[in-house]
Design brief:
- InterPro entries: DUF4170 (IPR025226).
- This is DUF4170 domain-containing protein.
- It comes from Thalassospira mesophila.
- Pfam families: DUF4170.
- This protein is of the alpha+beta class.
- It folds into two domains: about 55 residues, no CATH class; about 55 residues, no CATH class.
- Helix content is about 25%, strand content about 35%.
- It has two helices and six strands.
- The chain has a three-stranded antiparallel β-sheet with strand order 2-1-3, with helices on one face.
- The longest helix has 14 residues.
């Protein structure tokens, strides 16, 4: 699932590189159209301020999913549901968590973890 965010606010000048304070981050929205509605609302609220600007960004999230399963078919998690660790903002960060979890359970053949993008 895509994660769209509306990001922006008031900036020191019209180069829009240095925000005044922290940027506003609204979301996530599941579709671009939903994010666009929020962007339009925020943009119109600040239409008279030349130093205000909002944009839509797609920010992917990564999760480490898995745990202990009933057998090595890895279809039925013990307890009925898989563990979810995250979200992580990059594959590399998720991979570090995956590696940590995999090594913690290296001696259990019924444990398996994977990285997914949402």
């Amino acid at each position: 699932m895509a994660n769209y965010w509306v990001i922006g606010g008031t900036y020191q000048d019209t180069g829009f590189n240095a925000p005044v304070g922290e940027e506003t981050k609204v979301g996530p929205f599941g579709t671009f159209e939903d994010a666009e509605k929020e962007w339009s609302k925020l943009a119109w609220q600040s239409v008279d301020d030349a130093n205000s600007r909002y944009r839509i960004e797609r920010l992917d999230e990564y999760w480490v999913v898995g745990g202990e399963y009933e057998d090595t078919n890895f279809e039925n998690p013990v307890g009925g549901s898989e563990e979810r660790h995250g979200p992580f903002t990059s594959f590399e960060l998720a991979e570090k968590e995956w590696s940590k979890l995999a090594w913690q359970h290296v001696d259990n053949c019924n444990c398996r973890y994977r990285v997914i993008e949402s």
